[in-house]
Amino acid sequence: MKIGFFLYRLGALGVLLTTGILWNEPLASDLKQGSSNWLTVLVLFGFAIAAGCLMFLLNTRSVEKNNSTLMYVSHGLALLSIIWLLLWCFVWLAIISAKGESAEMFIKHIADIHLFGVGFSMAGYAAGWLAPQLGIRSIRFFMTAGWAVSYMAWLNLFLQPSLQWLWAPAIGGLLVVLGGFLIARSLKPKVETPA
Hints:
By secondary structure, the chain is mostly helical.
């Protein structure tokens, strides 16, 4: 379980480092030009920063004690992450439509990728409800949010490679998923008892 928590916390730190995007060009220059962009940036990237903070609420004691408050927080985060990811889909549509004549074919290919990214988030959310223990349920919900942040970061890196700070949440979100998987796996009861 120690390795799982180490990877999970390292991933949560990576998700929290989404904050660096505010100082990344060309976004930093856009924010200096007008205050109207701040609201958009806070909605689009602020959720990832808040998710990174909330992910640090997960600890060994709360998981083993099946803390219901943690489950409600993680559930809300997972549900919001799916809605937030759908919002990003519309933003990416606007970014791609500016590409000109090649935009239509590009939009079709990106729509197929969205089935993978958003579909995995929804599947993670549903898997959270299938867990019998509240601790494992909380972990699965945090994994859902980690996947959503990671997917957002990878696709933004593909569309806007100049946003270098997105490497932290891209890798961090995957580490949250891997760490959460290892933690949940260690909590499951053994099927066979040793002879």
